[in-house]
Amino acid sequence: MGHARRRIVRRAARLAAVGGLLLGGTMVTRAVAGEPPGPSAAPRTLAQTASGAGAGLVARLGGDRTAGHWVDADGRPVVAVTDGSAAEAVRRAGATAKEVRHSMTELRSAAATLRSAPRVPGTAWALDYRSNEVVVRGDRTVSGADWSRLTGVAEGIGGFVRMERTEGVFTTRLNGAEPILSTAGRCSAGFNVTDGTSDFILTAGHCGPTGSVWFGDGKGDRQIGRTVAGSFPGDDFSLVEYAGGKAGDAADVVAVGGGKGVRITGTGEPAVGQRVFRSGSTSGLREGRVTALDATVNYPEGTVTGLIETDVCAEPGDSGGPMFSEGVALGVTSGGSGDCAKGGTTFFQPLPEAMAALGVRLVVSGRDGAAAGTSAPPATGAAGAGASGAGASAPATGAGGTPLLARLADRRNVGPGLLVVAGSLVALVATRWIRTEQDRKAYRRQYSATWN
Predict the structure, then answer these.
(1) Residue 236 bears catalytic tag
(2) pLDDT of residue 105
């Protein structure tokens, strides 16, 4: 009986030691391989890394030898080049090169010629890096005569300007939804930002002029704030100052419906081909990909330039809502054509440009020293802004617990992990030694009993 009990104890000790080795090894390897966390660590996504590599190559080779860059389906950077030596330089850098006929200088010159032509409401154009063309689109409101005149301008530029008619109408996505309302109409709140003293909602500029008062429900019982700055047309962004000066709870969370949200970790610039998400108070959470950058749209109210073009759908009331990817804030909804039943094209105001013009920064809890501690509204009010991409959901009410794997990936766990490994090895050696000594004593007892 005693022998069986000792055997069980030894087996349990060995299992505990093996478990300790596995745990310690996991702590060390994940902490060494993982990206070090900290207030100064800027959030990076795979698409951002690939986009950064492509942008660096384009900047180094110049606009006469390149024609843009994008991210392919596997997340690798692709750079359009105009000559063989540039293609070789791109391949040496580990990116994919695609040789094209027209340089970025030519594409931008074509876009400038289109901008200088008489303005035609209901048209839009953007640089399509992948096809090496400037794509001009006209909605159903464009007359045959106006389309013919614009086609003549395109033909004068060259064969790399592609003309397309599109269903629907290019409109700013105003009216018809919650959560923020004013006499100018209804919009979706975008991201929460701060100037270090007061908190604001950064939303679309076409939602309402400076002085517009915004409410959080249809009865007008709860005032959210007042528009204090903005730019539209030309750009499409505005700043709504909270009535109490502060946003409230869950500033770093974007509401995506069903009481859930995603946490925003910072801001960035998108890449063509990147998967993105948009949240709006009419159509909820939608996804798609970036199809072009630096787009120009001739809305009935005026022309807006420098927009992000996507194939994400949107509907009236989604204006001003946030676009993000993997927890990185990218832009706010401007307008587009189509709907979420048939699909369409949606344009977004880039967020970094808007924040720089307004002199504000994103409210991100615990990340930015100046912004830490400020907070944003819950998901049921003006859509909270924050961090974390779609797919990394969090309760819309605030920060939850840290996932176990995230704790294991902390670089501070290297030391404790090594101690766990060392302790487990000592335990294994000790149990082995104890078993050997017990076996030796048992042999001696048996030998003595046999030869007594």
Answers:
(1) yes
(2) 95
